[in-house]
Write a structure and sequence with these properties.
By secondary structure, this protein is mostly helical. Helix content is about 75%, strand content about 0%. The chain has one domain.
Length: about 260
C-alpha cells in the first residue's frame, strides 16, 4: 500500500485546511440557529413559495426552517454540503490521475515494479478514504454542536443525511477519477464532471416544473441522495447503494482503461 500512503501524505495540508473550514462553517451556522428558531415569520414567507422551490431549498415534506431538521436541511444537506463533497472529491480524483500525468509524476511511479491496476486502485482508495474522513468529521461536528445550540435532532438523522450527500460526492468523484485515468486529460475530466454535476442538479430542480422532463428527475444523483428525506427518515439503503455503486463503476472503468493505454510523457 505504498502508493496509498504516499497519496494520503500528499494531501495532508489540504485535509487540515478542509477540516478547519468544515469545523468553522458548521459551527458558525449551527450557532446561528437560536436566532431563527423563534422567528415564525420565516416559515410564513417560505410557505408562500411554490412547492418545487421549497424542495430545492430543502424545506419540502413539511420541514420548517425554524425547526432543527428543516434548518439543517436548508442550510447544509440540500446544497452546501453535497457541493463541498463534490468539489473535494472531484478535484482530488483529477489531481491523482490526469494532473499527475500532466506533471510527469505518474509515469515515474508506473515505471516501478507495481501493476498499473494496483497503482490506480490504491490512488482511488486514498481519494475515498480522505472523503470518508471529511464525512465522519462533519457528523462529529454536527453531533457536538447541535445540542449546544438547543437543536433536538437524532444521530440517525444526522448520519443518514450526511452519508447520503457524501455518496453523491463519491459518484462524481469516481466519475472524475475514471475520466482522468482513462484520458489523462485534466480539462476533459474536470469539464465533463462539472458539466454533468450542474446539469443533473438543474434537472433535479427543474423537472417538477416541466411535464416533458418530469419523469427524468429520477435520473439525477441529487434525487438519489435526497429522495426519502434522509434528515427525517435516515439513510435510504437503495439510493445509497446506487450512488456508491455508480462511483465505484466509474472509477473501475477508468482503472481498466488506464491499464490499456500509453501514458503522456
Amino acid at each position: 500500500m505504498t502508493v496509498f500512503w504516499h497519496t494520503l501524505r500528499s494531501r495532508r495540508r489540504s485535509m487540515i485546511g478542509w477540516s478547519l473550514g468544515l469545523i468553522g462553517l458548521i459551527g458558525i451556522t449551527v450557532a446561528a440557529y437560536p436566532s431563527i428558531a423563534n422567528q415564525e415569520g420565516f416559515s410564513d414567507i417560505i410557505d408562500e413559495y411554490p412547492e418545487f422551490v421549497q424542495e430545492i431549498l430543502g424545506l419540502g415534506s413539511g420541514l420548517s426552517i425554524t425547526e432543527p431538521a428543516g434548518y439543517l436541511n436548508s442550510q447544509f444537506f440540500s446544497n452546501l454540503l453535497p457541493l463541498l463533497f463534490i468539489i473535494f472529491l472531484v478535484s482530488f480524483g483529477v489531481r491523482v490521475t490526469a494532473t499527475d500525468e500532466r506533471d510527469g509524476t505518474l509515469d515515474l511511479i508506473a515505471a516501478h515494479p507495481i501493476p498499473r491496476r494496483r497503482l490506480m486502485l490504491e490512488k482511488a482508495l486514498a481519494v475515498l478514504t480522505t472523503g470518508t474522513v471529511l464525512a465522519v468529521l462533519s457528523i462529529l461536528i454536527f453531533v457536538i454542536s447541535t445540542p449546544l445550540a438547543g437543536m433536538d435532532i437524532s444521530f440517525s438523522a444526522l448520519w443518514g443525511a450526511t452519508v447520503s450527500v457524501f455518496l453523491a460526492g463519491v459518484l462524481f468523484g469516481g466519475l472524475a477519477f475514471g475520466i482522468g485515468a482513462a484520458t489523462g486529460s485534466r480539462g476533459i475530466a474536470l469539464g465533463t464532471t462539472s458539466g454533468l454535476a450542474v446539469a443533473t442538479f438543474l434537472l433535479w430542480g427543474l423537472a417538477p416544473l416541466i411535464d416533458a422532463i418530469s419523469s427524468l428527475e429520477r435520473l439525477s444523483p441529487f434525487f438519489w441522495a435526497l429522495a426519502g428525506d434522509p434528515i427525517l427518515n435516515g439513510i435510504q439503503a437503495g439510493n445509497a447503494l446506487l450512488l456508491l455503486g455508480s462511483g465505484v463503476l466509474f472509477a473501475g472503468a477508468g482503472i481498466w482503461l488506464f491499464d490499456r493505454r500509453d501514458l503522456a510523457v
